[in-house]
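Bench log, entry 3. Co-assembly request; chain sequences pasted below exactly as received.
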Amino acid sequence: DSGVTQTPKHLITATGQRVTLRCSPRSGDLSVYWYQQSLDQGLQFLIHYYNGEERAKGNILERFSAQQFPDLHSELNLSSLELGDSALYFCASSAMGGEGAFFGQGTRLTVV
Amino acid sequence: SQQGEEDPQALSIQEGENATMNCSYKTSINNLQWYRQNSGRGLVHLILIRSNEREKHSGRLRVTLDTSKKSSSLLITASRAADTASYFCATDAVRGSTLGRLYFGRGTQLTVWP
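Structure output for the full assembly:
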């Protein structure tokens, strides 16, 4: 168990809809990262938050947004969903000076 | 692209044999990490090696790093069926890295037969 919790585990929704994925980082970790894993793109970094502030954006679409709350949990919002957004979405957290990033079990999003 | 590339794409061995996976990357790095992923599940952090380290061990895992060749290898000794998974290398390649902003390769699918 990595200590990173993601909910829900599975999500099935229709095109055009909006969903929210939730992540609780390991206790004490201030950094939260979101990743997307799809068959064609592999694992892609989406966005990084540190202690409530956005630090870096990767390959994140404008239809996607995220935030990190004062209790350090984070949410990834995906809107106007398309079939191609179907993927595994992972959250990870890390500590400064630590030994790596620790990933949650992911949310499998299926857009139909 | 800064992504690491693993080689081979797939590896099939018998229990008890050693498995070696390689990773090449393109830019300077602060550290390189190896992860394991069982089918459709989360990534498990295996080991991190910093750019000033050449070799690191953790249990049955041995990782080497050659920054002059921009390559790393992961050796799993005395493999077990439970080691069957995809293995990814990930580089940070970002100034002021915070360990989690990573660039992943496509992974090596390791199958260990009983």
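DSSP finds no helices and eleven strands in chain A. Residues 77 and 100 of chain A are 25 Å apart (CA to CA).
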